[in-house]
Design goal:
12 helices; homodimer; 434 Repressor (Amino-terminal Domain); 12 strands; alpha/beta; about 350 residues; Rossmann fold; 3 domains; DNA-binding; elongated
Amino acid sequence: MKRVGIKDVAAAAGVSATTVSHILNAVEGKRINPDTRQLVLETAERLGYLPNNLARGLRLSRSYTVGFLSDEIATTPHAGLIIKGAQEAAAELGLLLLMLNTGNDRELEQKEIDLLLQHRVDGILYASMYHRTVEVPEQLRSVPTVLLDARSDDPAFPSVVPDEEQGGRTATRELLDHGHRRIGFVTNSDDIPATSGRLAGYRGALAEAGIGFDAALVSADLSDAQGGYRAARRLLGTAHRPTALFCFNDRMAMGAYRAAAELGLTVPGDLSVIGFDNQELISENLFPALSTVALPHYEMGARAIAQLQAVIDAPEPAGAPRSQETLHCPLVPRDSVAPPPRL
Amino acid sequence: MKRVGIKDVAAAAGVSATTVSHILNAVEGKRINPDTRQLVLETAERLGYLPNNLARGLRLSRSYTVGFLSDEIATTPHAGLIIKGAQEAAAELGLLLLMLNTGNDRELEQKEIDLLLQHRVDGILYASMYHRTVEVPEQLRSVPTVLLDARSDDPAFPSVVPDEEQGGRTATRELLDHGHRRIGFVTNSDDIPATSGRLAGYRGALAEAGIGFDAALVSADLSDAQGGYRAARRLLGTAHRPTALFCFNDRMAMGAYRAAAELGLTVPGDLSVIGFDNQELISENLFPALSTVALPHYEMGARAIAQLQAVIDAPEPAGAPRSQETLHCPLVPRDSVAPPPRL
DNA sequence: GGGTTCTGCCAAAACGATTTGGCACCTGCC
DNA sequence: GGCAGGTGCCAAATCGTTTTGGCAGAACCC
């Protein structure tokens, strides 16, 4: 099952391989007779010629391939959108994505990077499945690398992350805009950028609205539905309960729904709820559908590829500080936010 | 930033490139002095030699690369596990996955297949994000291809799919085993293998238990939480209501929970519920946690790679019928199934 | 000692593209 | 006619491997 090569096209068109190559690659500064060009193009088309990327890459020292190295691809549905964004942006540039995941195994990671280097990838996307600070493996210094949904303390690596603080501000503002003044924050207790960023956004929005920060309105717990349930119960059990809850993520919001139901509070009539992450499986299937703030996963993937391309193109003075890009988290309004009940 | 090649190793070790190649590839039937072997291995290690896969592939007509072509990677969290299964099994064989998704755009799909062929992939996994029958593009006949979570009417393509019928039987049996005799089936109304397969499994399990099929216990609707809610309401509103519900998927089960809550029925005290798909974001976060049946996504990915490898190895008589593999769907018991209430 | 067999290694030809450096022919001009 | 310059094409080298078909020299045998 032999594929047709450039020589076959050349022979069929009665010209040399050189000429075919010049024509197909539209090389600048080469004079080609329009008739010949036409003939060659038609012949290539007719024979179904597809350039052999291995040969091409060998000659050009360029594989038109990018490694996508992620810590844990399986656990979150977000992974899909990041990949999709990266893949589509890559395809636009004629690049293909080589997927690997390390499962947070440092040793395996080494081997996988070697594999990618063997395949002579043009660059590597080092992706995390949740926004965090990472320790970048040494080997990645020898190849263009961009951090995706992750950042490093080493400024030599460009990174693309969501703007957690703006997201927190957006969520809180959505509640403020509906007239809420007493807003609880159901947060989580991990020390990650999302936690501190969203809290900062929450405080910022309150300050803007001239509302003082009240630590009694913040309740932290595990970041799943159980945790959200407990934290919400604590906040809603108080005498002067909040009229709205900003939840750290949609899973915690799911728990908040249950807490509200148990207390006989309807959403959004008695209590408004807003989540974060826009996990559609949850936010769209809850009743009422959950208003939330989306993480720009698709855009992160796409922007990471753009950054990578920039590094590949730029003859980088190694170690020079690179762009740390922060992406906007948009509001996704649904049905869980309404004006506070009249007292 | 030039990488070290086989010639560099040869020079450093004082032998020819031929010898280095023989040693590193452990070629059979070649006599090598153990001392030389040792020296070469050490030199390669010391210089950090990594073979250039492009050159290697060019020579061997083998890229050690597999295309993963999926219709829609983003919409479902299952995607991650399929990919992970495929990726890990591939890595085991020294293969890397080239990811592309078509978004169900036939024209784009053509281009992407061309791209994969340009990169001279050793084979292609043609994956669907839900079990269905597909029309395989013509171009895929020229390259080893395996259908993943999909099947074709053309028996030339091997495929790997979940055993929907066994899954339906397993779910129903779980309810029967807890003593339920009156079991409702909240199903969906699309004409896909999952619908008919799970229904067949439901009927099969009932028959085994000597219970007659009652069409009034089956209610179809959209396959999301809203649909599940409506279907469950219909079944639970009847005079002689079922004591347990088998739901087509976890999202519908989520709706069933709400229906139960509205009717004042507790799960699993008054009503047992079992789902399907094991969407952990839902099943683990519902209260009580949802018992369900898992789709073997990881295994499907892994088995598909195994099948692909078989096709690559086998000098296939083109068009010969290939294996259609069906994978077991395991029960995932949680807290939503209990014995029926005593009347 | 001379032939034969082993041992251990190597030179050179692929693989399929791109790129460098021409070369042959034509045209126009004096 | 001779020369300069332009036009349109091509031969050969190259990228980094693998593989084929040896070839020297040592060891063995009689």
